[in-house]
């Protein structure tokens, strides 16, 4: 009997030990998770600091190393604005007609001016004779005077025609092209157009283009982008292209291969647009993170401190973006690996604070 009781006690003790072992075994993960969460909470609380409304992430050198955070000094960049816009090769038949009409009327003005001078002299001579004892009759004097007045009226009316043609040319083509016709300025250039050796192209540049239009633009046909045509700045166009937004300019191409009325793509011939007053920086794409529709980067401001700053993304480059040197300076240390981790930690702490509040 005693042996049976002893055996039962031993079995009970073994069952209790087994249950305790199972409890410890299966509960260890939850215990570890709680421990890790507590440690992470302590770390997170020490990660974020605020100074004058600016949040700083603080990471020890060990955490930076374990997280693989890497930085790179921000480099200056040559800013090359890349303009891609549409242009139209203009038909100048109307301009040629206006020019021919203008020259025709100018010739009429020269003829009428000579006639007016002749009629004026005749009238003055007849008047002297009429005043001298009526050597010329009043009727003859009246006829000469009427001829003189009629010539004067014709000349005035013809001059008004010229003014109207000039105004039409000015409204459609601008002052620069009008001066070629009216004053003979850049006469050789206009001769190239008349001889079908050149083309006038109307280019619309985007609204964010600098105030000064580029001196040279590269043109290409939409259906043949490989063949390029160099276009030189001619003048600002007096009228806008209603189908496109932006400023319009006339460029001239010394080539007749461009088809009249064809649509072409205009690209700016790249130039160094930096100046002493404006400096630009290259931001590598690896450094950029996106949040709330904006692009951000992290800068290391101290040995263990990081701050997030927004950047403009208007000017994209093959390796990232080009920005003006403003709140980010050349040689600043920018995070190129681990920025997403920093963003996660920053927002994790902010969410925790909101929950605590």
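^ structure tokens above, recovered residues below v
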């Amino acid at each position: 009997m005693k042996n049976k009781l002893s055996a039962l006690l031993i079995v009970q003790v073994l069952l209790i030990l087994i249950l305790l072992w199972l409890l410890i075994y299966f509960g260890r993960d939850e215990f570890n998770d709680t421990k890790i969460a507590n440690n992470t909470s302590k770390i997170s609380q020490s990660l974020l600091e605020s100074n004058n409304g600016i949040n700083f992430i603080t990471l020890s050198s060990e955490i930076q190393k374990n997280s693989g955070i890497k930085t790179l000094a921000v480099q200056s960049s040559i800013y090359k604005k890349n303009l891609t816009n549409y242009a139209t090769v203009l038909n100048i038949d109307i301009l040629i007609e206006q020019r021919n009409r203008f020259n025709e009327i100018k010739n009429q003005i020269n003829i009428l001016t000579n006639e007016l001078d002749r009629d004026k002299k005749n009238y003055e001579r007849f008047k002297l004779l009429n005043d001298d004892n009526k050597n010329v009759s009043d009727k003859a004097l009246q006829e000469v005077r009427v001829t003189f007045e009629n010539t004067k009226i014709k000349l005035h009316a013809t001059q008004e025609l010229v003014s109207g043609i000039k105004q039409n040319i000015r409204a459609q083509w601008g002052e620069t092209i009008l001066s070629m016709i009216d004053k003979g300025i850049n006469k050789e250039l206009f001769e190239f157009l008349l001889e079908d050796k050149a083309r006038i192209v109307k280019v619309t540049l985007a609204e964010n283009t600098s105030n000064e239009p580029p001196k040279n633009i590269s043109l290409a046909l939409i259906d043949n982008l490989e063949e390029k045509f160099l276009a030189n700045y001619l003048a600002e166009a007096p009228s806008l292209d209603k189908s496109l937004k932006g400023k319009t300019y006339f460029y001239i191409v010394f080539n007749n291969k461009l088809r009249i009325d064809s649509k072409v793509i205009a690209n700016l011939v790249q130039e160094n647009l930096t100046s002493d007053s404006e400096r630009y920086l290259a931001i590598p794409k690896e450094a950029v993170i996106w949040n709330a529709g904006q692009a951000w980067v992290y800068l290391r401001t101290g040995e263990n401190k990081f701050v997030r700053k927004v950047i403009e993304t208007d000017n994209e480059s093959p390796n990232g973006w080009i920005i003006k040197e403003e709140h980010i300076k050349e040689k600043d240390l920018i995070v190129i690996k681990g920025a997403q981790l920093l963003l996660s930690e920053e927002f994790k702490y902010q969410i925790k604070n909101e929950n605590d509040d």
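DSSP finds six helices and 17 strands in the chain.
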